[in-house]
Amino acid sequence: MLDHTTVLLGAGGGPLTWVAVDVLRALQRAGAQVRVILSPETETFIPALTFQALTNGDVIPADALYGTIVGEDFRPLSAWVADCAALVVVPATPAFLARAAAGCADDALVRALLLHRGPTVLAYPGQAAVYQHPLVQANLQRLRAVGIQLYDAGVPGPTETTDDITWALEAQPIVERVAECLQQTRELAGKTVIITAGPTQEPIDPVRHISNRASGKTGFALAEAARRRGARVILVTGPTHLEAPAGVTCLRIQTALEMRQAVLDHYDSADVVIKTAAVADFRPTVIAQDKVKKDVASLSIALERNPDILAELGARKGQRVLVGFAAETQDLLANAAQKVRSKHLDFIIANDISNPSLGFASDDNQVHILDAAGHIETLPTMAKVHLADYILDRVQTVLAQRSRGAV
I need a surface site. Which of 11, 16, 72, 325 has the fewest CB within 10 A? Predict the structure, then answer.
């Protein structure tokens, strides 16, 4: 299941620390090579020597923030982490969750989490009372929002109390979750995915522009999720404050014409194109060379239509998977269905932007997915990082059907 895979196991603290030993053995039985990184609480319950014996010394102490001495050489922590395919922390204690959610790299385990770029799984007994407190739930939500996998593997003890001292964690399901996450990272290997994100800005003068409220969050979440699945990702984004995900080729543009050119420059090599960007439909016919003064008696701005990038891509779609987005304030499903047909899309993500608490600038969204066959799926409100994975699952289904000649 995990042959020839290196997994970094974070041994948490508390009464459930012994489960980390069970998970280590289960990972090894599954074929993985395991490195262990200790938390500040680990050795209160399990001595480091136990992990050293089971891993032939492949153990990183909690105070090795920047690395360890191996033989006569210094090995940076980043080097320990770099070739690990996955990171799993067992148990993820409330103390660890708080430090991780705050990015507080004051121990080697949290610092390793910040350095790691593959799947990360945090296992914990989620129904135990302390995990239900709003403060801990807020930390879990923050970690979930950046794509970390949270896994409630808890089993109550015979007393069925909610106190986490009497709970256990099941080792084998944790290992299976790690394997599942690693499988996901290979599903788009060899594929090139173009994703557009954010708004465009159409200049009126050197100071002002026409734009919209798109934040780019969904597009950036898709780029990160596609990269985790092994794809070569090209992110074409309008102006946004978001940082490009590591390992993604990020092309920053301003106008619709620039976005069109950037997409067309890479379209021939693309297997999948997902157009989340909110592209301005119109641009000023003439851009003033100097700032237009506010004391001008009246001002009319002549507009001309921007090219319909998605329709142009659809006209020469070939075997690519083409996904669009529809942000509407009325007749949502009818307008979205018309776009699927007219632009030759495989499916479209439609959301009602009249709800101010969802969509633009929010971390969450509630959408409908309409496909070329006329099927409509309504999804519950979910974080955009989860929506990104849901969309990519649909993309992979279409790719699989296309490879079998089914569509």
Answer: 72
Record the tokens describing residue 36, joined without a space.
Answer: 């262990």
Q: Is 235 helix (H, G, I), strand (E, B) or coil?
A: strand
State the CB neighbour count (10 A cutoff) for residue 366: 17
Catalytic option among 139, 212, 335, 351: 212
| Sign (positive or negative) of CA dihedral 255, 387, 245, 346 | negative
Rank 44-58, 140-154, 166-180 by mean pLDDT and report only the highest.
Answer: 44-58
Residues 6 or more apart whose CB falls under 8 angstroms from that of 390 comprise 379, 382
Q: Which two tokens stand for residue 22?
A: 């069970």
54: its two tokens = 């089971």
- For residues 179-187, give the mean pLDDT: 79
What letter represents residue 193's amino acid?
V
Q: Is 212 annotated in the active site?
A: yes
Q: For residue range 21-31, what is the model confidence (pLDDT) as tens digits?
A: 999 999 999 99
Q: Which amino acid is at 300?
A: S
Secondary structure, 3-state, 320-347: CEEEEEEEECCCHHHHHHHHHHHCCCCE
Q: What is the CA radius of gyration of the chain?
A: 25
Threshold 0.70, pTM exceeds = no
Which pLDDT tens digit goes with each residue over 298-326? 778 999 999 999 999 999 999 999 999 99
Q: State the residue for tokens 């395991």.
A: 34
**pLDDT tens, position by position, 197-228:** 999 999 999 999 999 989 999 999 999 889 87
Domains, the chain: 6-185 (3.40.50.1950), 192-290+297-403 (3.40.50.10300)
| Residue corresponding to tokens 């409509």 | 376
Residue 306: count of CB within 10 angstroms of its CB: 18
Pair 4, 34: CB distance under 8 Å:
no
| Burial of 127 from C-beta contacts in 10 A (0-12 / 13-18 / 19+) | middle
The pair phi, psi for residue 250, each rounded to 5°, is: -110, 120
Give the mean pLDDT of 53-71: 90
